[in-house]
Amino acid sequence: MKYTIALLAGDGIGPEVVNQAVKALQAVGDTFGHEFEFEEAVVGAIAIDQTGDPLPEATLDVCKRSNAVLFGAIGDPKYDNNPDAKVRPEQGLLKLRKELGLFTNIRPVKAYETLLDKSPLKKDIIEGTDMVIYRELTGGIYFGEKKLSEDGTVASDLCEYSEAEIERIAHLAFKAARTRKKKVTLVDKANVLESSRLWRRVVTTIAKSYEDVALDFLFVDNAAMQMILNPSQFDVILTENMFGDIISDEGSVIGGSIGLLASASVGNDVAMFEPIHGSFPQGAGKDIANPIASVLSAAMLLAHLGLHEEAATVNKAVERAIEKQIVTSDLNKNSEYGTNSVGDYIANTIANIDEETTR
Ligand code: IPM
Ligand code: MN
Asked: Per its UniProt record, what InterPro entries does this chain match (predicted)?
């Protein structure tokens, strides 16, 4: 079967890590007899440099006519330190999420047995952690009305949610829990925020149609603490946009490196797959970025297309790389492996997976 994949590599280390995901997909194509056609398009700072727009219309068109989007990373320090910048790379990503209707961001957080000592947290705390964060992605404070008073001394960002926006992601979270450990934890700030109280009401009602799934609630401040005190208590975490942004970065500490965390953004139609890490500009072009998050994002892409055996093969190849310490220096200080050699090892392992599994 033939699939078209939009490649939005973006800025910094984005292109390097996306290249490794492409190698993995090509190896899957060769091994399982699929054809992946890649179409590249610009987004983020590089798009601003080339066109003045962080999400040019042409890029959006490429995404809309593809079966899926593989995204790298965006961001450039020249914008971070300039609060007056009118156009920012991040606007490209936010607009893309909105335009493609990607209302749910799925971020799995897992402790790999062979990496337990890489985490700054104690081994017995993180052991057995296997959770997935369902982060609302097109609403809340990210997209509410922004105001700045004329004299520039007062600013506000509105956090707004509708019932419908909460319902659609809640259903996805409960369905996911059904295939996992059957527990949903809603993370909110219902002791303070009206929008959080709406989340509680809506999610409590929806839970009634999923009687086999347990629902509990945590305030976000407590959740931030529980994430590092006892992360293995979680199965599916359901939360609004900004809380999800924050606790998913926190979750990345559990696995030992943010370079391991993949994500899927799904919605009405075309889905997008991206590592949760940023563009790491200091690491760009040095062959040191960890490509695993990008490769695992490609595995999520395969699963989304219904190619489950193929996705499992990619995951297995990544696990093999980790077991054999064929990892970048974020996971092994003295590593002799770089972005490319880790990517090559994974692609090779995919191509030879039958021999690998019988070994
Ligand atoms: C993420 C990123 C983005 C976000 C930024 C780059 C806009 O941090 O995907 O988590 O805040 O959503
Ligand atoms: Mn983030």
From this structure: IsoCit/isopropylmalate_DH_CS, IsoPropMal-DH-like_dom, Isopropylmalate_DH
Q: Is 84 annotated as a binding residue?
A: no
Amino acid identity at 61: D
Query: Is residue 119 one of the residues assigned to a domain?
Result: yes
- Ligand 1 contacts CB of residue 16 (under 6 A): no
Whether 278 and 304 share a structural domain: yes
Write phi, then psi, for 318 (nearest 5 degrees): -65, -45
pLDDT 10s digits, 64-79: 999 999 999 999 999 9
- 245 C-alpha vs ligand 2 centroid, how far in Å? 5
This model of the complex carries an ipTM of 0.99
264 assigned to some structural domain: no
The answer to whether the annotation marks 201 as part of a ligand binding site is: no
- 320 and 294 in a single domain? The answer is yes
For 327, the domain range is 1-100+269-359
Separation in Å, CA 100 to CA 267, 293, 301 = 7, 22, 16
Is-catalytic flag, 11? no
Catalytic residue, from 61, 216, 221, 269: name it: 221
Same domain, 177 and 315: no
Q: Are 69 and 270 in contact (CB under 8 A)?
A: yes
Question: Is residue 93 in contact with ligand 1, taking CB distance under 6 Å?
Answer: yes
Closest approach atom of ligand 1 to CA 242 = 11
- Expressed in angstroms and rounded, the spacing between residue 275 Cα and the centre of ligand 2 is 10
Catalytic residue list contains 142? yes
C-beta separation of 284 from 13 below 8 A = yes
The Cα 177–Cα 183 span in angstroms is 6
Residue 212 annotated as catalytic: no
Digit-coded pLDDT (tens) for 143-162: 999 999 999 999 999 999 99
Alpha-carbon distance of 277 to 266, in angstroms, equals 18
Q: Among the listed ranges 22-36, 213-227, 255-269, which one has the minimum average pLDDT value?
A: 255-269
Count of the separate structural domains present in the chain: 2
- For residue 24, give the nearest of 303, 357, 302, 355 by alpha carbon: 302
Cα–ligand 1 centroid distance for 278 (angstroms):
8
Nearest-5° Cα angle at 247, 45 to 69: 40
86 is catalytic: no
Verify that 229 and 175 share a domain, yes or no: yes
